[in-house]
What we know:
mainly alpha, elongated
Amino acid sequence: MQKVFNLAGALGFLMSAGILVGTAVVYSRIPSITKHYMGELQTELTKVMTDMVPAKIDDVMPELPTSTGPAVELPKSPF
């Protein structure tokens, strides 16, 4: 009977140690796991937004100027 209790105690210790090590490993990996899922979410949201925004917006937008006019002259300082 003593052997059964010793085996149960050893198994209990191993389970507790395994849970402690597993928790420490998972806790240390949380930033990388979060970064991975945030990257996937960002990619998915980008795909959804590009599908939602119609291509007609480019047709409506005016052309940007290619050159600028002359510089504006500053007023003369009285000092």
